[in-house]
């Protein structure tokens, strides 16, 4: 019996910033697009700060030093917004 084995690699390849969302290109070819509104620190950041991201966590995360934000690809795949306490503290 043959089964189709799909190789997944959820490490970050690139991040693209849009007007009201950001896209994360994964090493396996998928692209995840998420509203900035899910992450209040990203939503409040200026365009220059948003562009200053770096890959962290062995490729499984994105870090914005200036705005103290970290997002994992696992969280994005689960559709997880920022924790409620973070959202409330920044409002």
UniProtKB/TrEMBL annotation:
One short Pfam family name for this protein? DUF2442
| InterPro entries from the UniProt entry | DUF2442
What name is this protein filed under? DUF2442 domain-containing protein
Species per Swiss-Prot/TrEMBL record: Planktothrix rubescens CCAP 1459/22
């Amino acid at each position: 019996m043959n089964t189709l084995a799909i190789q997944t690699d959820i490490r970050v390849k690139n991040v693209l910033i849009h007007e009201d969302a950001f896209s994360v290109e994964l090493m396996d070819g998928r692209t995840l697009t998420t509203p900035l509104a899910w992450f209040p620190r990203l939503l409040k950041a200026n365009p220059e700060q948003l562009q200053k991201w770096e890959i962290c966590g062995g490729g499984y995360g994105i870090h914005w030093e200036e705005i103290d934000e970290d997002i994992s690809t696992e969280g994005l795949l689960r559709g997880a917004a920022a924790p409620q306490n973070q959202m409330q503290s920044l409002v």
